[in-house]
Amino acid sequence: MRGSAGAGGRTTRGLVAAVATALSLAVATNATAQYKKTEPPKTRFRVGPLRFTPKLELRNAGRDTNVLLDPTNPLADTSIVVRGTVEGFVPVRRRARLFGEGWLDWSYFRSLSTERSTDPGGEGRAEVDLGPLTLVAGGGALQARQLYSIDIDQRILRQERWVNGGAEWRISRRFAASGGAEQRSYLYDQSAGTQGAGLRTAATLNRNNLTGTLGLRYAFTSMTTAIATGDVIEDEFQLSAPGLGTTRSYRFLAGVEFGEKAFISGRFLAGMREFPTSSAGSLPSYRGPALTGQLTLPLFNRLRLVGSLLRDVYVSAQAARTVEERARNTYVLTRLQGSADIDLPIEFIGRASVGYSDANYLLPTPVGGVPFPRVEHLYSVGGSLLRRFSDSVRVGGTVTYYRRVSTLPGNSYDRWVYGVSAEIVP
Questions:
Q1: Does position 34 have pLDDT exceeding 80, yes or no?
Q2: What pLDDT does 205 receive?
Q3: Single pTM value for the model
Q4: Residue 357: partners with Cβ closer than 8 Å, 6 or more residues away
């Protein structure tokens, strides 16, 4: 890496020192300190020590009015989206726990056969208690060919693999410290292009990511906990100008978490995201607010309101035009989502949802050789009506409308997705 090696060394040494300090504190504390370990999932079946729940979801069987997200010539098609999952749990004596989940997604389009895909994935995690210390390790992989980002309008094949590990130390009954790291690799279809660019543009996203995290938790009450986290994020890109292949950025958040039995449950964290010029590599430098949160409010035993918020920085598949622009673009994504579920008579369930996403790109996007400031606004509103036939079966209809408004010429679109949905848990 270029001239930021000294800063990187200081960051790494600081991270190691913080983890070592937390470890030494944990070892010195009372082994009877309370720890709220990961709760075992509620499972339907048991075979020996293995407890598991299979589930089959028909996410939609109906019509998509703009499959390719084309602003000028939308193509409609009949589509079916199905997901099968298995969630499992194995207790290993009193101190260890194994968790796992596997899934298979199947997306079918009647006419547009190029958009069909079968996407497998899975992940696992192990936890071991050693007095006041809990060790955690896990990993997983997935393959997907779906619309997943406001930045890319194609169903681009991507593969992800990850492995992680960490520990939590109960310093006292109220105070806990944790640390860990995750290595994740991203591979995208190199034959795909994006708005205003040629083929192979998505390959600019191919990279190896390493994230180191430190966290602190302090329980004010049994239902209210203060949280602070710090992340050091390093991305090593496959394609970059010489000397700009590695990027190091930082994320610092603090906030509060409310327990499941609180009037409002969930968490909200706010802080800062930073890409220093000295370590930004091929990305533009940036410093600004970061937010994440999800809160749930149940009302009258029949209504459940859920709201979520996210603000962070993401790498764009759109390459910048010159080395002076650091060769790669990023965008600040702000996303707001809300939903309301209500229990209706004769076993019906009503659901309404709204969403808003704003992607503000830090560098102009060239269109026909002309640079344009790029901001994407994506609005969504939806509703569904489901009938509960038993604790295991729900069937109903759903409809969602999407509208994107873009500052780029000819990049706005409308889209309806509607059809039948179902969920079966044996």
A1: no
A2: 87
A3: 0.85
A4: 150, 333, 334, 335, 336, 376, 377, 378
Give the contacts of 118 (CB within 8 A, at least 6 positions apart).
104, 105, 106, 107
pLDDT score recorded for residue 15: 43
Q: What is the pLDDT of residues 203-235, one digit of tens each?
A: 688 999 999 999 999 999 999 999 999 999 999
Report the b/e string of 6-34 with b at 16+ CB within 10 A.
Answer: eebeebeeebeeebeebeebbeebeeebe
Token pair belonging to 32? 């009877």
DSSP letter string, 244-293: -SEEEEEEEEEEEEE-TTSSSEEEEEEEEEEE-TTT-TTSPPEEEEEEEE
Say how far apart CA 101 and CA 84 lie, in whole Å: 11
Share of the chain above pLDDT 90, in %: 71
Q: How far apart are CA 8 and CA 14, in angstroms?
A: 10
Per-residue pLDDT tens for 272-313? 999 999 999 889 999 999 999 999 999 998 999 999 999 999
Higher pLDDT, 35 or 254: 254
Phi and psi, residue 356, nearest 5°: -145, 130
- Cα–Cα dist 98/37, whole Å: 12
Tokens matching residue 206: 């191919």
d(CA 389, CA 175): 45
**pLDDT attached to residue 378:** 98
Q: What percent of the chain has pLDDT over 70?
A: 86
At 19, give phi and psi (nearest 5°).
-65, -45
Long-range Cβ pairs for the range 108-111 (8 Å, 24+):
108/79, 108/80, 108/81, 109/64, 109/67, 109/77, 109/78, 109/79, 110/77, 110/78, 110/79, 111/77, 111/78
- Residue 261 has phi, psi (to 5 degrees) of -90, 0
Q: Give the closest residue to 148 by CA, choosing from 159, 132, 134, 135.
A: 159
Which SS3 state, helix, strand or coil, does residue 203 take? helix
